[in-house]
Amino acid sequence: MDRKKLFSLLLGVLVSLLFAHLLFRGIPWKDVGKAFLSIHWVWCIPAVIAYIIGHLLRGVRCTWIMRPYKAISFLDATQIVWIGYAANNLLPARLGEVVRAYVMSEREEIPKGIALSTLFVERLLDGLSIMAILWCVSMFAPAYPWIQQISWISGAIFLGALSAMLLARFWRQRFEQLLSWGTGLFPTALGEKLEGFGLRLLEGLECLKLDRYLAGILSVSLFVWLVEGAMFLFILPAFGLKVSPVTAYLAMAITNLGVLLPSTPGHVITFHFFCSKALLATGATKLPAVGLSYATVVHALQFVPVTILGVISLYTYGMNLRSVWDIGNKDGEDQDLPEATPSNSPS
Prior knowledge:
73% of the residues lie in helices and 0% in strands. It is an all-alpha fold and 347 residues long. The chain has one domain.
């Protein structure tokens, strides 16, 4: 593991330790045990179903985003999505994104730059969808300053990124000139790398054409997170809590924005901290033990199914967990790595 990845790993551990201290201090563990013993587990079934449906929608979106470059089957797209999420759950420093881009590139014979840049587009659309939901539910939620601060800061970041992306997409020549000028201010070696990265990112913006597919991509992106919010909703009655869409969608939005911070693999601790704090903020429960138990169950129901599906998908591609580790830790694109089985998808 190189120094950059090691630094990311150590930073994630330190951040997680900080939030662990904030999360666990004063927690009455006996009450946590009681909360788990009182769970109505039947509600976990529709919650898992909702989460899987969300990933199927991600597969649909992936096929539409990749349409300008190559026709990818729904099954392949969905399996690649699962592999990325599973790798993020098992590897540090969000190396699952690298793994997903590699598998996409090797299996579908797509340049790695395209695979990475289209993944960036997906993540940006996810952020904008979460922000739209957060702004809507915030109008009905208690006015906590920290929630408002998260809303405005994250909103400014994602809207700024969207504006830059649209300008780059529709005024590409001007943007390339600006990119060349800006990277020229850096030392030659670094400037060339930055310019190369920027040009690869531009190639990935071809999916944002003004056609019916763009409307579909935007709509599916929103539905992905509406469905995931339904998962949070289904777990509320599992703990005997009031079924409140405001509570569920606020918890979903705050949690997913919170896990953008560096953390351990699978967002352990940061997920639990932001999810439980959001639940307490809405007044759904006044007991930190219930908030922690709720967050633990939601996290487990997300972590376990998609990790299993991702590992199964890896093996169907002729890969394994060792392959994932090698991909995540490779230093250069030319290093020899296990290859994925060629796709039989129509081109």
